[in-house]
Amino acid sequence: MTGTGGRAAGAHRLSWGDLGYLGLLWLGGFDLRVTLLAVPPVLPAIHRDLGLDETTISVLTGLPTLLLAVAAVPGSLLIARLGARRALLTGLLAIGLGSALRGVGPSLGVLFAMTLVMGAGVAVSQPVFPTLVREWLPFHVALATAVYSNGLLFGELVPASITGPWLAPLLRGSWPLTFVAWSVPVFLAALLMLFSTPHVPPRPGASRRWWPEFRSLQLWQVGLVMGLGSAAYFGTNTFIPDFVHATGRAGLKDAALTALNASQLLASFLCLAFPDRLVGHRWPFVLAGAMVAAAGAGIALTPGAWVVGWAGVIGFATALALVLTLALPPLLAAPEDVPRFSAGIFLIIYGTAFLGPVAGGTAWDSSHVPAAAFAVLALGGAAMAVLAAATSYHRTPEPPR
Q1: 8 A C-beta contact, residue 109 and residue 124
Q2: Residue 263: which of 227, 238, 242, 288 has the closest Cα?
Q3: Mean pLDDT lowest for which of 45-49, 112-116, 271-275, 317-321?
Q4: Which has more confidence, 379 or 258?
Q5: Dihedral over Cα of 37, 41, 44, 48: its sign
Q6: Are 248 and 179 in a shared domain?
Q7: Helix, strand or coil, per DSSP, at residue 174
Q8: C-beta of residue 224 within 8 angstroms of C-beta of residue 348
Q9: Do 307 and 367 sit in the same domain of this protein?
Q10: Residue 92 in contact with residue 121, Cβ under 8 Å?
């Protein structure tokens, strides 16, 4: 890998201003997930207070993930019209307000409406980060991406870990107040960015294209490789609780889910330690796909205590692929095309991530064999490895218009 974020980074030391940008990127990454992952720990209270059935709960928890796909392209349009910084401020405001207002009433209608607003805020914000990385830290793309990815993974782990045992009791079990509390870091990030970062206007004559170039083979390859990895991650989160119950090891549920999510941080720290050795190379994606395939097959073939270890392998592999994928748009697209390239791959990633668990669940239901769900995820991991081996991770020209 050469140029931006690659070997050129060695000639440019981090300044104090760069460190400030890294801190903002970490906090922003944290805010992309913290309000989403604040929901599962308080689902029993929401279920009780609003009388929701399991189908409604499933829609409530799955809606933000679907929005990550649907609203990615509008996020690119927002960046083209407002600029990356202002688009992110708009997205953070939607996340904070949507999260804080979800418990008003409490009312089922308000809960769903504000979840929609919050999810849309997350969706339009995510394509902003590769652009801000390029604008703020052009000589440290790999490091900056690893930092905000680390924040994103902490945003998944922290609310899931402390809401139930610490925050909810402190707030007397009030799930509306819990949502308000987790909106505070979002508003904090918005204020810090508003007063400590400058607006960067588009360069004169710069392209304002926002629609992704869906004729690009590389766009589809990059998106599908990570999409298959995300399908394995979300599918494992979905299937583990019922799988360990069906195989007579229900007590392994918490350990397996903890291993799945905590192992992601190890991958993030690995990318922080060796960003230039990992970003922009094909072999880490091939390795991640092979690990997903092996772990999915391992869960299917060795139910029992091994499930905990295999879940950790899936978490590590999918997080490694995620961090490295998030670093690609500034490297594979021209500066003015980073937002639309990002939006395109996010649409493909989260669309695949939404459909993958559906395929696994269908296999389980139709065969009545719990292991079938993980067999599907294992096949997806194998396909991920094969596709990654055929994918170029260097910039290629766009198809002629």
Answers
A1: no
A2: 288
A3: 45-49
A4: 379
A5: negative
A6: no
A7: coil
A8: yes
A9: yes
A10: yes
Say whether 257 sits in a helix, a strand or coil: helix
Alpha-carbon span 145 to 134, nearest angstrom? 10
287 pLDDT tier (thresholds 50, 70, 90): very high
Sorted by sequence, the CB contacts under 8 Å of residue 286 that are 6+ apart come out as 385, 388, 389
Give me Rg for the CA atoms of the chain.
20
Provide the token pair at 214.
Answer: 């869906």
* Alpha carbons 285 and 176: distance in angstroms, whole number: 40
How is 190-215 classified by DSSP, letter by letter? HHHHHHHS---PPPTT-----S--TT
H helical segments located in 35-71: 43-50, 54-70
Residue 175 has pLDDT above 60, yes or no: yes
Cα distance between residue 125 and residue 68, in whole Å: 10
Amino acid at 234: F
- Res 308: pLDDT: 95
Closest CA to 222 of 344, 137, 124: 344
Q: What is the pLDDT of residue 272?
A: 86
State whether 190 and 258 are in the same domain.
no
Task: Confirm whether 304 is domain-assigned.
Answer: yes
Phi-psi map region of 137: left, alpha, beta (phi>0 left; psi -120 to 50 alpha): beta
* pTM attached to this predicted model: 0.79
Report the number of distinct structural domains present in the chain: 2
pLDDT at 314: 97
Give a yes or no: residue 376 inside a domain. Answer: yes
Query: Which structural domain range is residue 298 located in?
Result: 217-389
For residues 204-225, average pLDDT: 83
Tell me, yes or no, whether 208 lies in a domain.
no
Rounded to 5 degrees, what are φ and ψ at 191? -65, -45
Which tokens go with 57? 């709960």
Cβ neighbours of 12 (radius 10 Å): 12
What's the CATH number where 73 sits? 1.20.1250.20
Measured in whole angstroms, the distance separating CA 279 from the mean position of its chain's CA atoms is 17
**Residue 54 has what pLDDT?**
54
For 189, the token pair is 């990030």
Do the beta carbons of residue 238 and residue 363 sit within 8 Å? no
* Average model confidence (pLDDT) across the chain: 87
d(CA 145, CA 333): 15
